[in-house]
Specification:
This protein is α/β, with parallel strands linked by helices and 524 residues long. The chain contains twelve helices and 20 strands. A nine-stranded mixed β-barrel has the order 3-4-20-10-9-8-7-6-5, surrounded by five helices. It holds the Pfam family Glyco_hydro_18.
Length: 524
């Protein structure tokens, strides 16, 4: 009964994210479960996966549902929306007056890149792997492919040339009933045809509401593990990726949360490993700040998790955003004045027992935007004058419009917790869009049409600034992404992964590949 209740609640949130369905129990009887994932609204958006068919031998119940941020699928609302961590209604602009800046006092407003609901699939490809039986020296280039952009990039158009044999493919696709099952089958077939290992992911921003319950007891852990295995076997997947945001940590406001979440997660990983065997993959998308213990602080050791997991995808992005006091890069290599960085995240995980050879560093292909207070950039001194940076500017709290389709038309949005807020701009662009829309020249090396490209040496990230519009855009390009890839190789990491495969052009892919395989990095 507990499992059915959880499924009913999650189904109601997915089918009607703007209001819960009264007949959710009917859908749970159909044996359908769903997954919503990150990111970019772009990144791992709402994903539906079917429940594992009840096995006659084991009588498996429908799979527990887990969901994530993305575009609202059943409500008439703008493409780019803010679903979670938004200011109270009184503290933000009324829906009919979107130009009024939101309250800066409301911290941690979720980036729409990570919050809109989308029925979609996401593919993560690994270009060269260090899986069981494969040399740990082979660097990985992982990618997420968003199926909701299939009109822009079909599965056959994914840049497979940057992947190699024994790669990994993470699938987050619409697999409800009938024809939609074909997307999973086609995905698995396509991945294997390219020598890539197909893996599916569960959880995500909106999909972590009941994760704590699903691993809380021995009985629940066994049930959940068997359901995941049944789903893997049905479609031919060779692994599972867990995206719990976050064990005993801040996440969606209504997430279930326990002090012993991390302990229970580890216990579940052991059960899952025993269920699927050592020849299958277990991976996880993890926070830069690590898994938390009962005291709310990062655990002293992550070594036990490494014993059960093949890789972790270190989410080293969204380190600045609409919640930030100042502008800044959302994926800095060095911390400087940011909340965190790639360097600090890797140092935390490796210093607490997680092998560098099992870590993939995240690189976002999307950009974030701010509106600055002034038209002239101020310079700040960092580390006793070692760095002079223009990356950190005072801003108004107003997120400017991003790429085509970004809208703040006065529609309200209801998140999976039932919280209703106004729609706002995401302010986000894919790197390709910065070039195609003329904010960068075709080489990507200079700004255009009023935008000036700056390079912040401290964080090793570029940004664009338009003084007349006061628009500030933090993004990744061939220089910064290539530096991250080379740095990851020097640190002995397994490689890097991207959000998402539609965002970068060949110049950035080439730079990342060169960084991963550079002789300088390999000798370090």
């Amino acid at each position: 009964m507990t499992s059915l209740l959880l499924i009913s609640l999650m189904l109601s949130a997915i089918f009607r994210p703007c209001s819960l369905l009264r007949n959710a129990a009917l859908y749970s009887m159909l044996g359908i479960a769903f997954t919503v994932l990150p990111r970019r609204c772009s990144l791992r958006p709402l994903v539906m996966i079917p429940a594992a068919a009840p096995a006659s031998s084991k009588g498996a119940a429908p799979m527990h549902s887990l969901t994530r941020k993305g575009r609202c699928a059943r409500c008439v609302i703008p493409a780019e929306i803010s679903l979670a961590r938004t200011p109270p209604r009184s503290a933000q602009a009324p829906c009919h007056a979107p130009d009024i800046p939101p309250s800066l006092a409301a911290r941690r407003v979720l980036s729409p890149m990570r919050s809109r609901l989308n029925l979609s699939a996401v593919l993560a490809l690994a270009s060269a792997v260090a899986v069981r039986g494969v040399s740990a020296a082979a660097p990985i280039l992982g990618q997420y492919w968003p199926a909701y952009k299939s009109a822009t990039q079909s599965v056959s158009q994914v840049p497979w040339s940057y992947s190699s044999k024994n790669g990994i493919a993470y699938y987050f696709g619409p697999l409800a009933l009938g024809p939609s099952d074909m997307s999973a089958k086609a995905f698995v077939t396509e991945a294997k045809a390219h020598g890539v290992r197909p893996v599916f992911s569960v959880g995500g921003w909106s999909g972590s509401i009941y994760f704590s319950d699903l691993v809380a007891t021995a009985a629940e852990r066994i049930t959940f593990a068997r359901q995941l295995k049944a789903f893997m076997d049905k479609y031919g997947f060779v692994g599972v990726d867990l995206d719990w945001e976050y064990p005993n940590g801040e996440g969606l406001g209504c997430n279930k949360r326990r002090p012993d979440d991390s302990t229970n997660l580890l216990a579940f990983l052991k059960v899952l490993r025993a269920e699927i065997g050592r020849d299958k993959l277990i991976t996880a998308a993890v926070p830069a700040s690590g898994f938390r213990g009962p005291d709310g602080k990062a655990l002293r050791s992550f070594a036990a998790f490494a014993n059960e997991m093949d890789y972790i995808n270190l989410m080293t992005y969204d380190m600045s955003g609409s919640w930030s006091a100042t502008t800044g890069p959302h994926s800095p290599l060095r911390k400087c004045r940011s909340d965190s960085s790639a360097w600090t995240a890797v140092k935390l995980w490796t210093s607490r027992g997680f092998p560098a050879s099992k870590i993939l560093l995240g690189i976002p292909s999307y950009a974030i935007s701010f509106t600055t207070r002034e038209s002239k950039l101020a310079t700040v001194s960092i580390d006793n004058g070692r760095w002079q940076s223009k990356a950190y500017q005072a801003w108004t709290g107003v997120v400017p419009q991003g790429a085509a389709g970004d809208s703040n038309v006065g529609s309200s949005v209801t998140d999976p917790c039932g919280v209703t807020t106004c729609a706002v701009y995401s302010g986000q662009w894919q790197y390709r869009e910065l070039v195609s829309n003329g904010l960068l020249d075709r080489t990507g090396r200079s700004g255009a049409n009023g935008y000036v490209r700056y390079w912040d040496a401290c964080t090793a990230v570029p940004f664009l600034f338009n003084p007349s519009k006061k628009h500030y855009i933090s993004y990744e390009d061939s220089k910064s992404a290539g530096m991250k890839a080379e740095w990851a190789a020097k640190q002995g990491l397994a490689g890097v992964f991207l959000f998402d495969s539609t965002g970068f052009d060949a110049t950035v892919y080439d730079a990342i590949t060169a960084g991963l395989y550079s002789r300088k990095a390999r000798r370090a």
